[in-house]
Design brief:
Blueprint: E1 2-4, H1 7-19, E2 24-29, H2 35-47, E3 50-55, H3 65-70, H4 75-85, E4 90-92, H5 96-100, H6 118-122, H7 126-141, E5 145-149, H8 153-166, E6 171-175, H9 195-200, H10 202-215, H11 220-232, E7 238-246, E8 262-270, E9 273-280
Parallel strand pairs: 1-4, 2-3, 2-5, 3-4, 5-6
Antiparallel strand pairs: 7-8, 8-9
Helix pairs in contact: 7-8, 10-11
The structure holds pantoate.
Pantoate is lined by residues 28-30, 58, 61, 130, 133-134, 152, 155.
Length: 282
């Protein structure tokens, strides 16, 4: 097992691969490793000679101090989970100082408006923080390919845009959402739910599947109204937003246009935990 906490020690390890023209795949995470992360690691291991996973809870992408403080951290357990998949995966678990020196601030990015929708509107500065840390990590790891889950679909589009704008030589690959058999999207935040909450949280995917069925013959506005009324009738949840958006621009859809791909995006709170999910609608 290879675990590094400093850039220099990681770079030394990766140099041996680079010198032999071997490819490096990269999976950036904030830890609390679950099967969704393992599916990203498996894909990277299939497609590359060496796979690196970073475990770093990035302070600049949290706009809520309590959320940052409560974010689950358990490096030892994460290492064991990764090891259960392979002992060849390289773990990079740096400190905040190692990544940011003494300047823990986000760079400002323009993502051509992708950052203004949904999560960007609800969490000001969040995507500047994500872009900042992903750019720093890409510069350190210099992967050929990097893997991101479609659960954070807006983040995936933002990272692709950041790479396009900065000219970094990384292929960003989206991997479908990994779900529990109950349908619940796997997420590090699920750890904060009680047993009862985990049962109740399956409601999110059920509503998304209903919305997908309705979208076949109804316009986006009607589907949106349906989802909002479902949540009004369910006292367990506090719906933050449901939006139907064009996959490419992330702009809200009012009418269906031929040749466009649409997705439904959902954020709801349960037991004080912010849950996020989405579904392809066509
Ligand atoms: O999706 C995450 O876990 C984080 O946003 C990421 C991409 C690792 C950046 O901190």
């Amino acid at each position: 097992m290879f675990i590094y906490t400093t850039k220099t020690s990681l770079e030394r390890h990766l140099k041996a691969f680079r010198d032999q023209n071997k490819t490096i795949g990269f999976v950036p995470t904030m830890g609390a490793i679950h099967d969704g992360h393992l599916s990203l690691l498996k894909k990277s291991a299939q497609e590359n000679d060496c796979t690196v996973i970073s475990i770093f809870v990035n302070p600049t992408q949290f706009n809520n101090a309590e959320d940052l403080e409560k974010y689950p951290r358990n490096l030892q357990r994460d290492v064991e989970t990764i090891q259960s998949l392979s002992d060849q995966i390289v773990i990079f678990a740096p400190s905040v100082v190692e990544i940011y020196d003494d300047n823990t601030v986000a760079e400002s990015f323009s993502y051509d408006g992708l950052e203004l929708e949904m999560e960007g509107a609800q969490r000001p500065g969040h995507f500047d923080g994500v872009g900042t840390v992903v750019k720093k990590l890409f510069e350190i790891v210099q992967p050929a390919k990097a893997y991101f889950g479609e659960k954070d679909f807006q983040q995936l589009q933002i990272v692709k845009k950041m790479v396009e704008k900065t000219g970094l030589n990384v292929l960003v690959i989206g991997v479908p959402i990994h779900r529990e058999t109950s349908g619940l999207a796997m997420s590090s935040r699920n750890e904060r739910l009680s047993e009862r909450g985990l049962q109740q949280a399956t409601y999110l995917y059920k509503v998304l599947v209903e919305a997908q069925k309705l979208f076949v013959f109804e316009n986006p506005v009607k589907v949106q109204q349906f989802v909002e009324s479902e949540f009004k009738n369910n006292p367990n949840f506090d719906l933050e937003y449901f939006a139907i958006a064009d996959e490419a621009t992330l702009k809200p859809a009012v009418e269906k246009e031929a040749g466009h791909k649409y997705r439904g995006f959902l954020v709801a709170h349960l037991e004080g935990v912010r849950l996020i999910d989405n579904i392809s609608l066509n």
